[in-house]
Amino acid sequence: MSPQDTVEILEHILDRVKVVDPVNTRKWFNDLHIAAFDHGLLQIGCPDSSCAEFLQDHCQTVFTQAAQNVTGHLITVQFIDVSSRPAMQTAVTEENVKRVRLHPDYTFDNFVVGPCNRMAHASCIAISQNPGVIYNPLFLYGNVGLGKTHLLHAVCHEARRQNPNISIQFLSCEEFVNGFVSALEKGSLLDFQNQYRTVDMLIIDDVQFLRQREQSQEEFFHTFNALYNNRRQIILTADSAPQDLASLEERLISRFKWGLVTRLDAPSYETRIAIVKKKAALRGLDLPEGVAEQIAEHIKTNIRELEGALTIIYATARMTGQPLTLEAARQALGVQETAVGKSITMSDIVRTVSEMFDVRITDIQSKKRSQSITLPRQICMYLARSLTRHSLEEIGGHLGGRDHSTVVHACSKIEQMYKEDAQFRTRVDQVAHHITKLASSN
Length: 442
Ligand code: ADP
Ligand code: MG
Prior knowledge:
This protein is of the alpha/beta class. The chain is built from 19 helices and eight strands. Helix 8 (214-229) links the parallel strand 6 and strand 7 (233-238). The longest helix is centred in the last third of the chain and has 20 residues, at 422-441.
């Protein structure tokens, strides 16, 4: 195949992906190239490891289907990192085979700075350029969806750009606690400790998870001291200020305050507009005049929901085949208001799923376990979780008297399928769309 052919094939593949999976499409897809094509394996070269991992995790099925459509051959797509940079270093132990994955979108460039987050942003930049020197530890706190995790990823991206050999451990507090518990069980505490006490930078997200976990607090205390005494950088996030993390040991709270404590606030209207525009540009979407303002007016606190609104507007436009106009955006946001409001009932969900999957309502609500009934039932659980405020127990109770762990399992299974299978995703989106329509006509 000539280089010209590969360029054309990739262009066709990208055209299809854009249509089938606009949610995951990014502008930087234009930087991809075909690195090799041999024995049915199409390797696509990516600018760095985080891009390759993002594509492998979110878009592998869509790209493979597109490549098969475009070429008419049974091809598998694989994404490879063609940069020479080493991936982020973490010790590989059994607990930690899952290496940290940096999200390619979560960079400083893609972070909109406003009065709500200026201090947090500035301190993160300073740290990524000079770890362990200025603010140690850095403690970021704020409500959910205000950009804490985004900033942590950005620090990692930037610190690695400055020093490709820097060793960073970046994990959620839950992973820290689980790793600790499992090291205790297996008698591999020393490995666990080495893994965290010898790095240049330790980043732990959502430390409120340490509440009520006394033994993990003790372990974390010693980890903190070891790193701090060696002037290694520590960055922590939480949903509240150190002193408000009730039931955390006093000696930990006081250490959290040794460096810089900084808060992230909800963004102002202007910042929200800038964020929506940034997110749209990242996805290569053209926003008609006024749409960003409309979204920013509508969603005031959680930035993740701003992005969700953008997705809904585009998905609705695609599903209805209508061009995206300000009016269409308004309507789509109306749909979302219903979706997150209280008006959707369990019976709206069960009824719609029953019709669209052609199974009887009584079967969905029964104990039967055949595959043709289980899957629709699991979809009901997943949709109930995202479209209503019912608890896991209530949802399980309504769907054949199941316990909450069955509902949790169903939700994560459907979420996985939703992520990996574009056709399945379209189908579930259609069901959700029907449910919201049905609920708004109630
Ligand atoms: P938190 O960890 O505080 O709950 P996240 O970092 O997960 O929040 O952010 C939620 C979403 O909002 C992410 O997609 C993130 O990219 C986006 N986001 C948050 N703040 C900003 C910002 N200032 N600029 C651009 N995107 C932002
Ligand atoms: Mg977070």
